[in-house]
Amino acid sequence: MTNEATKSARKSAPKPADRRAGARAPASSKPKPASNRAERAAERRGAIIAAAMDEFIARGFAATRLDDIAKRAGVAKGTIYLHFKDKESMFEELIRTAIVPLVTRLWATPPQPGASVRDMVEGFAKTFIEEVATTRRGDLVRLIVAEGPRFPEVADFYYREVVSRGLAGMRALIELGIARGEIQHKNLAQFPQIMVAPALIAVIWQSLFSRHAPLDALEMFRVHLDLIFGERRTA
Amino acid sequence: MTNEATKSARKSAPKPADRRAGARAPASSKPKPASNRAERAAERRGAIIAAAMDEFIARGFAATRLDDIAKRAGVAKGTIYLHFKDKESMFEELIRTAIVPLVTRLWATPPQPGASVRDMVEGFAKTFIEEVATTRRGDLVRLIVAEGPRFPEVADFYYREVVSRGLAGMRALIELGIARGEIQHKNLAQFPQIMVAPALIAVIWQSLFSRHAPLDALEMFRVHLDLIFGERRTA
DNA sequence: ATTAAATGACTGACTAGTCAGTCATTGTCA
DNA sequence: TGACAATGACTGACTAGTCAGTCATTTAAT
Q1: pLDDT of res. A23
Q2: B223 and A193: CB-CB below 8 Å?
């Protein structure tokens, strides 16, 4: 076997010294030393999730190496397997745990009773563009689009938790707008996707083409809203 | 335990060799019409491209195996390397050669002089939805969205050849519509993306969610056009 | 016969997942 | 309180593959 040669060559300086106490004391960048065992474990789990997130977004599922995730998380590879069954279920769980706060954040818009439907939708879009489209969360959406077909469970989850609910909410808003006379196009309630379409365009544009041509996503969305609600007073 | 997606895919063993070649040879019941050297080579190259297309779409770049492409193309693995430098440049060239006819096909709309701008856009959308969104070409678009960030050259090419030209053409059409009085919203010319947005939504929906909820993309697009051009006479 | 095209067994670099061992923390008893 | 045992989180070398790319050999067109 060539293992012997490879083995020794692979890692020449393991530097076993600063494992536990060593790693804890000098790492004052962490606000929490956390000498409690369970706390530290949870902290590590969080570090793994964050690292995995970055790696998966940057490389996609198949091209991501667990060694890299471990390195980025500051953890040994074996530790990953204390928290996740395997690479695939780590990916799925990752998406799930990332989606929930994203959706929560998005639906946490203060439902001002006096506001017009247009203002509500615009506020929503503003939040989405600022908090999702122009941040790493947007890459998460792109990641789901990219890997969805190969991870039906992820696509299902995303449909149930985000798409289905989001469209239902948007439909309700559209119907409110129609009832109030703000929206003339009654057929729009059949396709809430139309309301959301420019937001998704913004996400994709951001990842792929913003280098070539920056896109003012919010202004684009406002023009889109003009189509639906009619021209603004203040242009 | 290995990756489930990879594994299940691995099972589907393509049968005898001339799967693709047979499909390519147009007007003959003969499996092997070409005895000319250059012709056969070109045929093989085409088979490799078609097979690679299918595999890359189904699995993404990193998870696709050259062995599978070779098997599907009815060719030995070494043959691939007679036509392409390596996996990566094969992918890039593949996208390039697939995009060109796709764009050509799309811009080959007969520019009827008497038609309204709305009819032109609608005809365009109809072609797009029938020929791209609901076919394998749509998956190609999704593939570019998925792999674009990891293949800047592909993203660049796509921007130059498709996005940039497409938006310019669409902008011209919008300006024509404004000049003719068909379109009231002058700001729309700033964001031709809005015009196209539902078409992209349709492509993504098709790949990810059509199992859960089918989407009548053409009707959606018509409703979208109602927003831009005003309500249709015949609802 | 000559030579380009095609083949597929082979190589070696790479990686998901394992597991025997380590050691900081926690629990227990005197 | 101090000593010692039990725990289990953590480690990383290791195994068992996988797969891109090569090349000596075979096939077949000219």
Answers
A1: 35
A2: no
pLDDT of residue A172: 96
- The pLDDT score that the predictor gives to residue A14 is 33
Nearest nucleotide from residue B2 CA, by C1' atom:
C16
Query: Residue A129's pLDDT band (boundaries 50, 70, 90)?
Result: very high
Query: Which amino acid type is present at position B44?
Result: R
Per-residue pLDDT band at B191 (split at 50, 70, 90): very high
Confidence of residue B233 (pLDDT cuts 50, 70, 90): low
Long-range contacts (CB closer than 8 Å, 24 or more residues apart) made by B47-50: B47/B20, B47/B21, B47/B73, B47/B74, B47/B75, B48/B73, B48/B75, B48/B79, B48/B80, B48/B83, B48/B84, B49/B94, B49/B97, B49/B98, B50/B20, B50/B23, B50/B24
Structural domains in chain B plus CATH codes: 4-84 (1.10.10.60), 95-229 (1.10.357.10)
Residue of chain B minimizing CA distance to A203 = B145
What is the per-residue pLDDT for B35?
65
Q: How far is Cα A122 from Cα A144, in angstroms, rounded to an integer?
A: 25
Q: Which residue has the higher pLDDT, A148 or A10?
A: A148
A73 CA: nearest nucleotide by C1': D10
D chain positions with any atom within 7 Å of a protein CB = 9-15, 17-24, 29-30
Chain A residues touching B147 at Cβ < 8 A: 60, 146
Query: Cα–Cα distance between B210 and A106 in angstroms, integer?
Result: 25
Chain B residues 31-70, Cβ below 7 A from strand D? 35-38, 40, 64-67
Mean pLDDT of chain A: 85
In this complex, is the C-beta atom of B13 within 8 Å of any C-beta atom belonging to chain A? no
Asked if B188 and B228 touch (Cβ cutoff 8 Å), the reply is: yes
Question: What is the predicted pLDDT for the residue at A36?
Answer: 75
pLDDT (0 to 100) of residue B113 = 76
Total CB pairs under 8 A between chain A and B:
163
Q: Is B111 exposed, middle or buried (0-12, 13-18, 19+ CB in 10 A)?
A: exposed
B28 CA → C5 C1’, Å: 25
The candidate with the shortest Cα–Cα distance to B201, out of A166, A206, A200, is A200
Q: Which of B95, B142, B153, B191 to mutate to test the interface with A (most CBs of A within 10 A)?
A: B191
| Residue A109's pLDDT band (cuts 50, 70, 90) | confident
